[in-house]
Design brief:
By secondary structure, the chain is α+β, with helices and mostly antiparallel strands. The protein is built from 8 helices and 6 strands; from the N terminus they run H-H-H-E-E-E-H-E-E-H-E-H-H-H. A 6-stranded antiparallel beta sheet has the order 1-2-3-5-4-6. Helix 4 packs antiparallel against helix 6.
Length: about 230
């Protein structure tokens, strides 16, 4: 039998198969190395972002603030909307048109904007019901991205108010008065809230926000708070 591979069909077949296998292996190796170089070129923040994209609901305010069915006021600085899931008879959100994600993003140059948001929030409350008590404030650690000031009546009469987290987010220190945020920014040039402490506030026992009576369930609490008056004194 001839040893010349050029004249031997079997040897030619083996040689061709080896060449194809080698080419496929090289292609796979090139793809792996390219992917590795691309990964190494990213920062750690990029890698975390790629692994954990922000939930779609977290940025929902950006679309809600431009919904004409929700808007109640707008000017060159702010937009005010009705909360899609109100936790009281009247519940509004005052949001800046500027891109300010949260309280941590605030700087001293934002002080006048916060004052404007506060004043427009007060005006909205007054137009809604001039005799009803309202509070204006921010959640210490908001779940939604884009700065928003809550303007909420103190009756808490709403089917959307369902659980302890909802209640405590508006009736404990987790809810920080608008004017206190402005004072902190004026004094320190920034707003810092303890995340772990704030999260613990949401786990506190249920208490009436008027008489401070402790209640065991949300249905019992919602029945109890109806006995109080929320009219301005």
């Amino acid at each position: 039998m001839s040893a010349n591979p050029g004249k031997n069909p079997l040897m030619r077949s083996i040689g061709f198969g080896f060449t194809v296998a080698l080419s496929v292996s090289y292609l796979k190796y090139s793809q792996v190395m390219a992917s590795k170089r691309k990964s190494e070129g990213k920062s750690e923040d990029d890698k975390v972002s790629a692994k954990k994209p922000a939930p779609f609901w977290k940025t929902g305010l950006l679309s809600s603030m431009h919904d004409p069915d929700l808007q109640v006021y707008k000017d060159d600085k702010v937009i005010i909307i009705k909360d899609k899931y109100p936790k009281a008879k009247f519940h509004f959100l005052v949001m800046p048109k500027d891109n300010i994600p949260n309280l941590k993003s605030l700087k001293k140059e934002n002080i006048e904007l916060l004052k404007h948001m506060h004043e427009k929030g007060k005006e909205t409350a007054e137009k809604s019901d001039p005799d009803l008590q309202f509070r204006l404030g921010y959640h210490a650690v908001p779940s939604m991205s884009h700065l928003h000031l809550h303007v909420i009546s103190q009756d808490f009469d709403s089917p959307c108010l369902k659980n302890k987290k909802h209640w405590n987010s508006f009736t404990t220190e987790y809810f920080v008065d608008s004017e206190d945020i402005i004072k902190e920014l004026e004094k320190n040039g920034k707003v810092i809230k303890d995340v772990s402490h704030s999260q613990e506030l949401l786990k506190k026992n249920l208490r009436c926000h008027v008489c401070r009576k402790e209640m065991t369930t949300m249905p019992a609490l919602k029945t109890h708070i109806k006995q109080h008056s929320y009219k301005k004194s």
